[in-house]
Amino acid sequence: MSTSILSSLANASQQVNIYLRSIIFICGVTSNIFNIIVFLSLETFRESSCAFYLMTMSFVNIIQLFFGLFPRIINVAYGIDWTITSLAYCKVRYYFFQSCSALSYTCMTLATIDQYLATCYNPLWQRYSNIKLARYLFVIFAIIWMLHGIPILYFYDHVTSNSTNETDCTITNIDFQRYYSYFNLLVLLCCMPVVITVVFGVLAYRNVQQILYRTMPLVRRETDKQLTVMVLVQDVYNLFFIVPYIIIYVLQLNLSINEDPIYTARIDLASAITSALYYVPFSVSINSMK
Fold it and tell me: What's the CATH architecture for 2-283?
């Protein structure tokens, strides 16, 4: 009976990894390309710093999907693991996954903060919402995250198991593994972006509610409202799809070797679902938020 349950759970995990991830990947690449076209074609968005963050986030998301999601689909569906056949790809894949994930969340965080500043009543705060500063900040954070990911190129390596004789692409330094698992993934890539975007998203929403009572050009008012809606919906996606991933990820970190096999298989299935849904915020169509 337990063997049948384990087999069913393992099969369910495999189907989720193949089909759910494939759907998210196809929709994600298509949506992000569409986002870029929308922001480049509409004149009202070209000089908007918030729109600039959202557009660059779409560029980064496409790279992130190709290095994070696509190789996993190929591995599960066809049994091809490029990280095993190529040490260079082993290092490069996780480097770009880390750097692009961090940069994408940074763009979303900056877009949320920027929209809060743009909708502030105080002109002093509004001054910091400008396209020139946005470009500088993007370049600065891109360099920071690229430098931050350099240890991945050094510590990721091929490791062969003595018991199974199977080779895996994994971190070889225990201290860096702890940093990467607990602080980098949980804090930098999950908790911090969610908290910051929720806080500034709520503040931006409050500012937008007061825009109706201010004297400003109609086009500016409508653009601010539209961009704020885009940012807030993206923030909601982040909240609802990242938090479940965090919960299951923490449970996986605390699984013991002697854990009940059925419980472990259920956690693996939950992990397959939540880790696939983790990519939904990278796959959202901005145009659908308007």
Answer: Up-down Bundle (1.20)
